[in-house]
Design a protein that fits this description.
70 residues; globular
Length: 70
């Protein structure tokens, strides 16, 4: 299983940053953020996609969630 964490300016966008990780059995993953600067008091959205197929299409996606930088 592989996972992709995406951050976007709107739900489902993933236009700001995306990072993939292969499952190694860990219960937690720490992913460094290498996207553009995020600004205080502005809303951003994140969601996670899972992949088990080799065709590149996600087999499941979480709902988008809003967060803000303070």
């Amino acid at each position: 299983v592989s996972y992709r964490l995406s951050i976007g300016s709107s739900p489902r966008a993933g236009d700001l940053w995306s990072s993939s990780v292969d499952d190694n059995g860990a219960s937690e993953y720490a992913l460094p953020y290498f996207g553009p600067s995020l600004y205080a008091a502005r809303g951003y959205y994140w969601h996670v996609s899972t992949f088990t197929k080799r065709n590149g299409a996600p087999n499941a996606e979480s709902p988008s969630r809003l967060f803000q930088v303070y």
